[in-house]
Amino acid sequence: MNWFKHKSYPNFWEAYKNCFTKTQEQKIEHIRFVVFDTETTGLDTKNDRILSIGCVAIEGLKIKVSDQLELYLKQEKFNASTVKIHGLLKEGKLVKVEESMAIELFLNYIKNAVIVAHHAAFDVTMINAALVRIGLPKLKNRVLDTGHIFQKTKLDTSKMHFGLDEIANRFKIPLHDRHTASGDAYITALIFLKLVSKLNTNANLSLRDLERTSKRIGLL
């Protein structure tokens, strides 16, 4: 890629970077959140690859069904043992794009949104690894993890980490399309709104209140 060889960045990266010239809004009702999930060939962030990315936006603390993104990537690597989890075949009938195009479309979509995921460290690291492979810097967005936010509610202090299924079941959220990127993003968006509702008792919750304040653990 030309920008990699000449150490200059493509227009889509510059447009993405320019989205961050203004200070991030702190009132959560004024923030555009993008809830996202990735399906991958495995859990090795160095060697595995992204198979699909699913995103849904939240604005005004409401899910915007019309504001979604779903991408399927051409499989440079194929791990047959994970097909039973995500159901994505190497070929199949889905329209797939190269990793570089998927990353461009993803950045064009998220812009300067606050990105949200469950166990966000993994998904963010996978995106950052793809960015590095095409010679670009890492994501600039602020990141929220619904797992960390769940801890803030103190609804269950029996352990540190709760899976997506566990939290969804607690809030009676149906697990439709589980283990698809778009399905998991939508479930995570519903969980996020439930958690914000629990914490926003005085209608003065800010973005900083949702961010992790304790010592960082793992990939983030």
Structure summary:
This protein has 220 residues and is of the alpha/beta class. It has helices at 2-5, 11-18, 83-86, 99-110, 120-133, 146-153, 164-170, 181-199, 207-210, and strands spanning 33-40, 50-59, 62-72, 114-117, 143-145. The chain has one domain: 2-Layer Sandwich (Nucleotidyltransferase, domain 5), CATH 3.30.420.
Write up this protein.
There is one protein chain. With 220 residues, this protein is of the alpha/beta class. The protein has a single domain (29-209), classed as 2-Layer Sandwich (Nucleotidyltransferase, domain 5). Helix content is 36%, strand content 16%. The chain has nine helices and five strands; from the N terminus they run ααβββααβαβαααα. α6 runs parallel beside α8. The protein starts with a helix and ends in a 10-residue tail after the last helix. Residues 83-89 and 215-220 have low confidence and may be disordered.
